[in-house]
Amino acid sequence: MAGEMNVPGSWDPKKLYNISPEEKALIESRAATRAALKAEFQMKVTNPHQSGPGFVFDPALQRYLSMRSRHYSHFKKTPKNFGLFIGCVIAPIIALTFGTQWDRDRFDRKCRQGEVAYADRDWKFI
Q1: Over the stretch 18-58, which tens digit does the pLDDT of each residue have?
Q2: Where are the transmembrane segments (predicted)?
Q3: 52-71, pLDDT tens digit by residue?
Q4: C-alpha torsion angle, residues 20, 2, 25, 59 (rounded to 10)
Q5: In a domain, 8, yes or no
Q6: Are the CB atoms for 2 and 19 separated by under 8 Å?
């Protein structure tokens, strides 16, 4: 967008802001649109004859909030989603369960065989 500088090593700070007339017109039209929307919002917010307290209705914001609230109804089940669910939820639970059970069984076996002294037990001070 900022000039024709696609070749590596051709950076010239004097040509950094050389933009085409089309790009300049686009930038100015976006600025004019922003200014018009800002003026309209200010006019609505500061209207002394408004019907009552409340918020200014913004259709773009309403579309965004509606999209966020309807996200799960548009969810599509795919193998990738299922794999992510298994990898992020189910697999850690199973791994922690088996790891904890293995450690407890190993400790129980050592206690029953007399390999762990009573003074060396875990959780002695709790």
Answers
A1: 888 898 899 999 999 999 999 998 998 888 887 777 788 88
A2: 82-102
A3: 777 888 888 899 999 888 88
A4: 150
A5: no
A6: yes
User: Residue 57 domain-assigned?
Assistant: no
For residue 5, what are its two tokens? Answer: 């500088």
Whole-angstrom Cα distance, residue 85 to residue 46? 49
Domain assignment present for residue 108? The answer is: yes
Q: Look at the chain and report how many structural domains it folds into.
A: 1
Residue-range definition of the domain harbouring residue 21 = 13-48+76-118
Cα separation of 91 and 101, whole Å?
15
- Quote the CA–CA distance of 88 and 17 in Å, as a whole number: 47
Regarding predicted confidence, which is higher, 63 or 12? 63
Structure tokens at 25: 């017109």
DSSP-based three-state secondary structure for 54: coil
